[in-house]
């Protein structure tokens, strides 16, 4: 798993030379992460043939919804960057509340899909799947966090 996670992030670092805009870069990175993530999930899940069909259908559905939440997050980051140098208190509050709302959407989605995955897989495999999802999310969050400066105009 460590090897695949390393490949995932090395791949995203090499993309910047090919992207023509921030939006292009974000989409290419998201595409690479999606592809590498699927490889990683395949490796860690060790699904039987009978589990595989139902799992991948639900996985794809879940990923589509995660993508929508992720798009809101990308837009919020862009909005933060756009207002970074002239952040008003009102805008700071808006950014904070939006970030909390996005986190809430993510958690609600995860809870909803945990129940759905439990209907098609044993609990241990569902836990393993969400452990992998959470590790990937933490690595992505860490990378994003390292790129976004703290607001310094107090």
Plain-language structure description:
- The protein has 154 residues and is mainly α.
- The protein has one domain (2-147).
- Helix content is 83%, strand content 0%.
- The chain has five helices and no strands.
- The chain has helices spanning 2-13, 22-45, 49-83, 89-120, 123-147.
- α3 (49-83) runs antiparallel to α4 (89-120).
- The longest helix is centred in the middle third of the chain and has 35 residues, at 49-83.
- The radius of gyration is 17 Å and the shape is elongated.
- Mean pLDDT is 87; it is low at 14-19.
- Low-confidence runs of at least 5 consecutive residues: 14-19
Q: State the helical fraction.
A: over 70%
Shape: elongated
* The number of domains: 1
Mean pLDDT across all residues, rounded? Answer: 87
| SSE string, helices as H and strands as E | HHHHH
What is the gyration radius calculated from CA atoms?
17 Å
* N-to-C CA distance: 42 Å
Query: Biggest sheet, in brief?
Result: none
How many strand elements?
0
Query: Based on helices, strands and strand pairing, what is the structural class?
Result: mainly alpha
Beta fraction: under 5%
- How many helices does DSSP assign? 5
Short description:
The chain contains five helices and no strands. With 154 residues, the chain is mostly helical. The chain has one domain (2-147).
Give the secondary structure arrangement, pairings included.
Elements: H1 2-13, H2 22-45, H3 49-83, H4 89-120, H5 123-147
